[in-house]
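Task card 7
Instruction: Convert sequence to structure tokens.
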Amino acid sequence: METTLSNSQPKGEALKQLIRTQALTADLKPAVLACLTGTESRRWTIAELSDRLHNLGIMCSKPAIVGALTELELEFSFCSWLPWTLTENGTEWSLVPKNELPGRLPPP
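Output:
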């Protein structure tokens, strides 16, 4: 989905709206999830996801990808029945099976 900036809004506000629109688009979240669940890689950086999505013809900004990942992370946290969770570790995002989480968390 390609969205242009509105001339009626200040640039900063228009950019925020563009990022918000791209992050919540019907195409971006499923595309990001497809990358995370595919066989190509288990862990992705924002730059890698951006390149992959652009290669698939999904034009979006890196902040929009961060927004989509954040939305997915929140959605996953509310779905206790899902077998994995979406986590950010340094600069990488990955789906982690919930049974692997205790070993990845630092000791209390």
